[in-house]
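Let's do one together. I've listed all components of the complex below, 860 residues spread over two lines.
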Amino acid sequence: MTDAFKIGIAGLGTVGTGVIKILTQNADIIAARAGRPIEIMAVSARSKNKDRGVDLSNYDWVDDAGDMAARDDLDCVVELIGGSEGLAADLVRGALNGKKHVVTANKALVAHHGYELAEIAEGNGVSLNYEAAVAGGIPVIKAMREGLAANKFSAVYGILNGTCNYILTEMRETGRDFADVLKDAQEAGYAEADPTFDVEGVDAAHKLCILSSIAFGVKPDFEALTVSGISRINATDITFASEFGYRIKLLGVAQEVDGEILQVVEPCVVPIGSPLGAIEDVYNAVYVDGNFVETPLLTGKGAGEGPTASSVVADIIDLARGISLPTFGVPVSQLKDLSPLDAGACKGSYYLRLNVLDQPGVLAEVSAILRDHNISVEGMSQHGRDPDQPVPIVLTTHEAIHADMVKAAELIEALDFCVETPCLMVVRDI
Amino acid sequence: MTDAFKIGIAGLGTVGTGVIKILTQNADIIAARAGRPIEIMAVSARSKNKDRGVDLSNYDWVDDAGDMAARDDLDCVVELIGGSEGLAADLVRGALNGKKHVVTANKALVAHHGYELAEIAEGNGVSLNYEAAVAGGIPVIKAMREGLAANKFSAVYGILNGTCNYILTEMRETGRDFADVLKDAQEAGYAEADPTFDVEGVDAAHKLCILSSIAFGVKPDFEALTVSGISRINATDITFASEFGYRIKLLGVAQEVDGEILQVVEPCVVPIGSPLGAIEDVYNAVYVDGNFVETPLLTGKGAGEGPTASSVVADIIDLARGISLPTFGVPVSQLKDLSPLDAGACKGSYYLRLNVLDQPGVLAEVSAILRDHNISVEGMSQHGRDPDQPVPIVLTTHEAIHADMVKAAELIEALDFCVETPCLMVVRDI
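Okay, and this is what the predicted structure of the assembly comes out as:
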């Protein structure tokens, strides 16, 4: 048998210990598939003595993870520390410069510094693999970089954050409001103590940024993303959306139109029976449009120890097999700068929920504003009446220009009877 | 730029011409991803002068496809002739023996001769790639051989034949019977003039045989498969299944239990809301159970020019990139002989539809037979009454032993009042 493929693991949280469990429990089959054993030489984490449920006694303990980069007994450093800056970033740079392959689950790092890291990797003849950074156990990076590589992509859509999808599903099933469901999710361990990255769409945006780069052959450009989260969605929206035949989903959408690219993460309304409308709970899903493949969909649990660690180990197996690919699917020199598409010029149908005082003339004023912005109403719903108290009204529109919708919503918000910022969401038929 | 990767294409039907279209239309992006251009040197088909809508004038025409194997200007032969024997098999053997990589969409060939071909490929240091053989444009072979390679698999389930899934969906939506829907599907081009391979489950069985080999590291063993098709499903079954909350699906199921493997293709009843129950029309889906990844699901259109050709070209790009993998995920020497699991010993819940004369005592006799075989009834439904005429009765059972169910069904069929072979289907909660 060929020499072992030797790795060091930096970061022993849930995913890091999961990687050790897989490499231990499945050692035989992994060696058979990789053509050689995979051997853990060294590990590193903040606390040496914490009980992690795995035996670390056969591995060198490295106090400073950064020292992994300089060890000459490693073929590959596995970075599971997290964060786009600091120790994780230094370690990855150091390892690549030291001609070691790197496997990471760090979506923030790849989204923010992917281009620089790809240059370093390519310059040193090593690989940066990051399957686990997007959609946990679902091999979506492999599908896009390899399995669908025959295609020009025009769009990639994803439900990329399991926490948000769980919260939205739970809100719908129980009729409870966002804050209430979030609190329970935190107590049950489905949401972080600081949920900002998840619920405000940042986590999904990191993932979309990576998918967009592979899909369109552009340098990852996180700044070009428009991001909003689900905290402004309330139980009323969920109910109204269902009434109109929709589900509310936090979608990542990247589209290329004439060389310009739209990258947006935002809550959208999606038909109930559609491929993404049917994805519930903690499930993730990715859907792509290629010019020869319609709509392959990859679905699965997007997080958790097992799935994420499974993808980390798959990346390691690839490297042990000698598979090495350009970081974003094409050589660095061929990655283009991203030309952002003007979102305001995009057309779409919209869901607009207002919270207005129930008084005469409201609909006349709203209708006039919509008319003045070339917005044609498709459907309208108001539940109950409560004179002079706030009531929700939902409108759905025919195709309109995004900037017009935004402007109309602003003008409506400025009216006296409008008691809350309107909730505006685009309809995505996917 | 590195030297071109040179291919010959044998077989210019729908898929073959699709491959030419992709390599032509997407030449730039494919060269960027592969790191080198992919160049078609030679093509071969039965008829030279047929108009295929693609320009063949830049390629050498080879009259006898078998001659491709001996050309010294090719890195890879793309076999799109089809059939498990004859020209296709000879060409693939010849090409591999001639140290050329082979890409094929030929499921019958890989299912029947995969082990022998894997030996030849490995012995000659070349690859046999066959992504397009299973589930068209969905990169399921790549997912199982690579993306999920960290896992020990316990099961793989699939809706693997789009024609059958289309027919079953259409039967449910229109209430029409099998033969009637099949006839329309043939006229519309969704089913072959000779539909046997599709509707009798042979096509799905070829695909399952391949997936099973990768999942469990066994030599492909088509003879070990139990196969039945959908021609015995009637409109009544579809209606009753819906009433009980089920869809009828032609499922391929491969499961490993203590080193023994079950491989079966058969119509099953599946809960309406389940991952596979929700897959309708021509869509395919594959669902796997790994020991660290739960249930990733790949869905997509499983056939057609674009998707199938997309997978063929992805295989070619892999080879151009220098990616070479063992045919079934592990070296040939490590592929085990398959020990078939005794299906009769398996437990499950069942759907049993009888067609019986509506007369006193029927239920008593049926119930006695079930009781004598330790089969406990969960639900029962009979629609309408028609004394002394045949009426359908459906029973669903609690968990029972498969051999007992089969025996009970046989005894029921032998009763005077039973006018038709009972329809027995296992319930699969996936």
